[in-house]
Predict the structure.
Amino acid sequence: MKILIATEKPFAKVAVNGIRKIIEEAGHEFALLEHYTEKSQLLQAVADVHALIVRSDIIDAEVFAAAPHLQIVVRAGAGYDNIDLATATARNVVVMNTPGQNANAVAELVFGLLLYNARKHFDGKSGYELKGKHIGILAYGNVGKNVARIAKGMGMEVSAYDFFNRIELIEADGVYAHHNRYDLVAKCDIVSLHIPATPETVKSVNREMLELMKPGAILVNTARKEIIDEPELLALFKERTDLTYITDIRPDLHDQFVEALGDRYFAPPKKMGAQTAEANINAGLAAARQITAFFATGCTTFQVNK
Ligand code: NAD
């Protein structure tokens, strides 16, 4: 089988070498397309491949149509909203993600962003401590669990809500489980977002939810910009001058956020959540292992379009 890594933004070299090793040791052919600048390059490269490993690359109907032999696409990472699942399913292509492989990286960034805010962007002014603050984790998946672990280590009060109401799972970790997201938002000093972008969650972080935030509360987003109703968040935060928004993913309305909120808003120039050597390598190697297992045994454990 021919297995292609197609990454506009490449994996670390050590990850590529590891992926190549796994693929070749399993007797498959390895191919690499990095730093492509035109979609036509991707369309050409997929013409004869049976499997595809991607990162945030857009795999839409046109790409599927250009890849008649494609059997499996693995998104090396957690979110798979860059892949057209309906088309994949219609063409009998298995789509997987690599859950958990970058979760610690994202969780650590939550605290990097929070500390940067707590210490007033390191400008020399007196800040505040995270110890004793109440953090509310919205969606208790792989990232959410890691956020809880770190928060407990910092002496924070930790609670969570997951849409699938994983109450027992949350409580087993010694975390208070809320029964709905409104309750969580109303009780916490910091609300940390970890919901995937799906048709149900897009724009779900809206005024109705955010106006419940406690005085002086902080909203941290390391999930996706699509889950935020940006105009509603901006309008509310203009009125509520006690609230702060910190996000790993720049909103479409970034310039308006900067102008209206000043220091009560922060977004790094580029999404940094999974940008660590460890996450990069873990996710890449997991993708390669999942593909070789799929071809060897038909294993579809991490399939997301079942
Ligand atoms: P995960 O799949 O382990 O957890 C997601 C959680 O959300 C699950 O507990 C699930 O119950 C809940 N959920 C699933 N479908 C839902 C729905 N329709 N509505 C509401 N809740 C739902 O994912 P994760 O590894 O914890 O990552 C969470 C999200 O963070 C990803 O989906 C991705 O969008 C984002 N992410 C961002 C970065 C970054 O670079 N900033 C990196 C990794 C992940």
